[in-house]
Fold:
Amino acid sequence: MVNICSTSSDSSVAVAQQSLDLASRHYENFPVASCFLPEYLRQPIALIYSFARQADDFADEGDLTIEQRLNLLSSFRDELDLLQAYIKPKSAFFMALGQMIRERKLPFAPFYDLLDAFSQDVTKTRYADYEDVLDYCTRSANPIGSLLLHLYQQATPQNITYSNQICSALQLINFLQDIAIDFKKNEGKQRIYLCQDELAAFGISEQTIRAYVNATQPIDDYWQQFMHFNLRRTHALLNAGKPLGNILKGRIGFEMRMIIAGGERIIHKISAVHGDVFNCRPKLNYWDWAIVFFKALFKL
Structure:
């Protein structure tokens, strides 16, 4: 767990640099504050990413109790409350974040939404249906896209709609990619983001998922059909938001097209192994990134 907030004596510039370092060290299926973005956007995006990364780690990483995790997330809410009230925050990280929010005129609501989603991660482990899952995505993923559009000064209603589709799709891709990882989280209370009603419809029980995770049973046709169903739906959602990559101009648009192409590549890799993410968890390699770059460059 990385906690930038502990360095209360650091300057805003140093904190921003730490955020950039964090973004470069942590593996993601999409570029974060990459060199393709204009220089003036990289540090603000890194600060947003760092906020989300730290809060997500509070919910997921280490051996903390549920109460400790919720307390850490609550401390982030307290800092946001201070910023909103124009009161000096307690940590150097939030001083830097607050300065950036004011300078870039960003809304506070998406930051609170992220904390709400991560708090839900601590306490909720099952999702009844697709609507339930998408409701989580509106708070765990969509706020990032909204903040970026505000940062780009491109937060029109249509752009936000496209962004929400892209962000929700990327979140769903992450769920499908990390089924085994999520199953082992949350103090043994196996976390399953898959829709409970759809698992039942495809004849898949939690005991079956446990067997896949523990490698005591190979995946069967039911699981393959279930995964291909989810992949088709997720790809359609990602494709619905794809016009945003061409609406945003210049290097910002290129970065967005890379994000979309990265999601498409993960869908392809999961499909290629027929949904066996238990033995073949997809991860983008150098060849994949070359394909992502090519697709973004030529707007494919």
